[in-house]
Design goal:
Layout lengths: L1 H21 L11 H4 L2 H4 L8 H6 L11 E4 L5 E8 L5 E15 L3 E11 L7 E7 L11 E3 L3 E3 L4 E2 L5 E2 L3 E3 L4 E4 L12 E4 L2 E11 L2 E9 L7 H10 L10 E4 L5 E2 L6 E3 L16 E4 L10 E6 L5 E10 L8 E7 L11 E3 L6 E4 L9 E3 L5 E8 L3 H26 L11 H4 L1 H25 L7 H15 L4 H23 L4 E9 L11 H14 L22 E6 L3 H19 L2 E6 L5 H6 L6 E6 L2 H6 L13 H5 L4 H5 L2 E2 L2 E2 L2 E6 L1 E6 H6 L8 H13 L4 E2 L3 H11 L17 H15 L9 H7 L4 E5 L2 H8 L7 E4 L4 E2 L5 E2 L5 E7 L6 H11 L2 H15 L20 H11 L11 H18 L9 H14 L5
Parallel strand pairs: 27-28, 27-29, 34-35
Antiparallel strand pairs: 1-14, 2-3, 3-13, 3-14, 4-11, 4-12, 4-14, 5-6, 5-13, 7-10, 8-9, 15-26, 16-19, 17-18, 19-25, 20-23, 20-24, 20-26, 21-22, 21-25, 29-39, 30-31, 32-39, 33-35, 33-36, 37-38
Helix pairs in contact: 1-20, 6-8, 6-10, 8-9, 9-10, 12-24, 19-20, 20-26, 26-27
Length: 950
Amino acid sequence: MNKHIRIGRRVLAGIMALVLVSQVGIFDTVKAEENEAADVASALNYYQGSSYLEYLSGYEDASFGKDVKEIAAADYSESQGDVEKTEGQIIYTGEDSEVTWEFNVQSAGLYNLMVEYMSAEGNQNGIERNILVDGQILYKEMQYVSFTRTWKDVEEIKEDINGNDIRPAQEEVQEWRKVYVYDSARYSNAPLAFYLEAGTHTVTIQGVREPMYLASVTVRAEDGIRPYSEVKAEYAQKGYSAAAGEPVKIQAENLYRKSDYTLYQTADRSSAITEPQHPSQVKLNQISGNQYKLAGQWITWEVEVPEDGLYNIALRYKQDLLSGMFTSRTLLIDGEIPFQEARNLSFGYSGSWQVDALGNDEERYEFYLTAGEVHTITLEVTLGELADVIAKVDSSLTQMNQIYREILLITGAEADIYRDYNFDDMIGDTIENMKVQADILKEVSVYLEEEVGAKGEQVVALDKLNRQLEKMHEDPTQIASNFSQYKDNIASLADWIANVSEQPLSIDYIEVIPSGGELPKAEAGFFGAVSFEVQSFINSFFTDYSTLGQTVLAEESENQTTVEVWITSGRDQSNIIRQLINSSFTPQTGINVDLKLVNAGTLLPSVLSSQGPDLALGSVMGDPINYAMRNAVVDLSQFSDYEEVAGRFHESAMVSYTFDGAVYALPETQTFPMLFYRKDILEELGLTVPNTWDEFFEVVSILQRNNMEVGFPQGMPGMQIFLYQNGGSLYNEDLTKATFNEDATLDAFQSMLDLFTTYKFPRDYSFQNRFRTGQMPLAIQDYTEYNGLSAFAPEIKGLWSMAPIPGTVEEDGEINRASACSGTCAIMLRGTECPDEAWEFLKWWTSADVQASFAQEMKSVLGKAAMHATANMEAIASLPWTKEEYTALYEQWQYVTGTPEVPGNYYVTRNIGFASVSGYTTGNADELLHWTEETNDEIARKREEFGLDQ
């Protein structure tokens, strides 16, 4: 009976799909009904409007206004949300805040906004705000305006037992900063400007991410900065001359303040004369361009000079990451840009270290410094001369993505190269737009070639796309045959923007030299370099790489307990954990930790031969029960404070580590699916984010009728969504059999198959590429895809978000959004001789503070894409989510369902995969029935092997 019901439902779904397609002409853009589409942009929290370049083009002849209106923060005219007056004229503004100030200007013209702020206690992530003038966001760059925090090292660089440097801990410094408002991408070297007529106006600051204090807001035009020629003439008029005395060298690693905790010291072994250097020991001797590269980042150093006078500022630097291009910095002396040219200082590409004084092709810049006081030198990452170029290409990329979607509407994802689509008549304006965008790319390519002096590899993507656009414009019949490659070239252009927007620069030291003084050499001589390499090679045979940053010698720790911990995730992760141990765990508990980086496959054999560690970190979800069946891990529920510790995690996170009443692991990470969606495309089609499956399929029908795709997890993860939302389970109640032959499981499997057969969802695809181009504007993916999109698709920032997955409406009207989860865990091995100390480490490691610190350090070392998916529910709140994102994530987390691990469960995963492969061809859920007996026989065999009840 149920078989016929499933078959009947498939036929009905197929008929409905055909009806939906037949209701629309193939070349028409299909949208939701107008009354349903009302206020969609508002519902999606999405701004649709012009870019800053487009806005300024309307005021090309406007001059800057002359008024200066400084307003105390507490003198606001209106506020909403989390706003609180503190002391004096200072106010606190949270993420959910909106503050408006009213002012009057007598002089019409362009104005900038200056904000006096201080970071407030939060999650130590970047501060973001929206800016509104007269109640409106005037252009998209007024969204997500960033305000940096201020950080410092809390101690000097220390050494481990082998003489290797240990990176110092960092802390945030709460200091007032008064800055102009720039766009977050820094596509403009000048502060954001807006035009005001004479009269009364308002400016509003709207909270997006992280709280902050405000002291004042000022509406004014930025002060004019003099050119270097005028400053030099003033030096001569005042009789300034070159300073006497010796140069002053500042090691880059000894910084004073910085904008980001990711700007930490690293080791350079590429040169014998990087300072300090050692042939065998790791010395933190540089600020690396791998981290010091994002527009808006800044580092400040302190310097004292021996005599009043004129100085040159020289850097030993390396720019070997952006081939064929230059990178840029803005220089501030004592917090001020000294002259116009200091706003855009360029550093050319080379594979070796370079030493140059700041200047131009004709002369070194001179700076007047006084003795007897501490001066500051700040270098801020800027796009320099590339800012306008990147802004043009970014705007062009938006147009090219629109061109792609308009072609997609006609051809679908796979264009038929033998078909005449009649593009001339269908998208004539789009074809003309191809020529416009091709000309922009050509103009940029020529400019870059002139600036760099050669056609570097960085212009290849521009030239390739330029030629393709010209070809499709000249002969529209070539569009279909070039369509697939066009999509790839758009992705390459987006990568180009991301790469060129990064301005890497490694710095060894800064030297303040009396004007005209001799520059230090950039590299060691031949014999010095060879000697260093030979010593390094010989010492590599005697270096102990297993003692990752240990600060206590073995003989010194004889009276202290040492816990041996193995980790398999990677050296960067190991180094971070070692640093946390040294700064936190050992000082607090007196317990030493022997942390070792090992291959994942060595753990079980070592444990079974009684050679294993006390603890293992980063174990996969199936390991604890697998080890427990072999009596190789400890039941953690026996510890008196286990229940308190388990309360840190969602109950679903513990299910896979629990068997027969015992708990064999603590969760480290937990991941689950979320619904990712493109705000701009849904708004364009008059759609809202679906909450239920009925709404989901309505959205799917319109997207597919516009030749767009929807992503969904295939196989077991996709099946589990439908299974758990309808109250089913993968195993029977006593976990002795899989439920392949039960109606709930078969119905869930059929629902999953229908998506890939009847609805033709793609099975193999690059989510990030299709999402960024708009080919796949809706997809259910693991929430960690958020990291990749944030890092690798910056061009669509603000155009996408994530929401809880669609759910099943239950009898009481509640929506059940259940889904499965995955993750990693930490286990205690049976052979440990120090279980209490090992338990202390597990408690420390899974605590909110340590997990949050580890997540932040991971991001600082490996970038945005490496955000740690911690299982600690308190710690995850400290990761860089907006309130909207965290609310959605937390809501979905409440529905996450754990899947028990049982002996023989590898057959369950494998056989669902086999059934899915055949089911994608037949569309029949009964494919799963064929694997029922084999799966349950294997579960029974493993239970018998381990002496469990049948």
